[in-house]
User: What shape does this take?
Amino acid sequence: MTHNSLIPQTTSAQSTTACWPLFGLAALGLFLGSIPALTAHNPKNETASSLPKTQAEPKESRFGMSFAPVVKQVLPAVAKIYSSSRSRRSEVIDPQRYRFFGDNQGRLPRSPDQQGIGSGVIVSKDGYILTNNHVVDGADSVKVQLTDGTESTAQVIGTDPKTDLAVIKISGSQLPYLNFADSDGAEVGDLVLAVGNPFGLGETVTTGILSAKGRATLGLDYEDFLQTDAAINPGNSGGALVDVQGRLLGINTAILSRTGGNQGIGFAIPSNLAREVLRSIIKDGRVVRGQIGVRIQDLTPSLAKRLDLGLVRGALIGDVIPRSAAARAGIESGDVIVEFNGHTIADSRQLHLAVGRTESGSTVPIKILRNGNSQSLRITVLEQSDQEDDSPKVGRNEPTPQSGILNGVGVTDLSPTIRQQASLPNSITGAIV
Assistant: This one.
């Protein structure tokens, strides 16, 4: 029996020693026109600020017969990342029990150090690099190797497990880097290139199209993946997904596979989300997100019918925290948020993303449906703490509750978090209204 599995794209150092079959490269089709404009920067002529600005779409976007000029400009800004973590040797209670396996002090022997291989993208001339959190998570040492063979020890500036992103830094002042593309403006069918370090083999480029947007597949708190059929394999984690102008469109992070190798469905964190995480980590040392103080859930067809709504889109408000931003704005339980800060909201995931990406302290317009009638409100977004999160989940690491609205009454499971907030003893069971 075979099973689909989502595989973050790192690989161990040992795996690179295996013999991998070589396959012939399929020839690319001919494209009319000339070579597209290149936007990866030559550091000698660089006059921009340390962090590049999102570059506007050129008026004319044309293809030539080869992507080689684009690749030559992109490759120097995509680095190999080698992470290592020293094994920990735990103490044992009974030394005699482990006399054949431990040392003379009754401690278990160390296992071999753990090695990981991934990729990273240089996004500033002074050495800031975006990669995946799972590439450097728990690492005691992180080294970066550039395409010219230069190797440096990297400092981990900050990580964000909620998006699987990390920011590391190497020393430099005139390093090659990539500009950001506007991932919101990318369209399904656009040509893309994936650049990284698959299986530790070294710089590798594959091409394909952007096959879908807005995917949520890994169970992270904040997911808005770009999907591509460009070949992504173990070791590509943290590598670049670029457009045909050589701009950074996403950070490659995982594949959907039955075999552990590429099967044509890969996922990348969109550049707009990656850029926000980068700026927040550099500025504050952590990612600062917004929250409005509500519990949300998707609007299903049955719920839309019970609420007498003529559409099945939006985020249903299951509960409003007293004295929260939502309560002060006049949002009530049973409302459906269909627009937030000018963006259409299709489901609870989109609202969760939109609120989290909004700068705390800013006041933004929202549109709600209440009793079938549309209303416009304004809400001031507050900073999210570790305990507060506008998520469909009850609390951190807790499963999504089974909740709904029956005859106008919202109910959900009595979770440990709700039990604690309501000061309810463990002997009480049931659902909470």
Summary: Confidence is low (pLDDT under 50) at residues 13-40, 42-48, 89-108, 393-411. Residues 255 and 294 are 33 Å apart (CA to CA). The domain at 290-397 is CATH 2.30.42.10 (Pdz3 Domain).
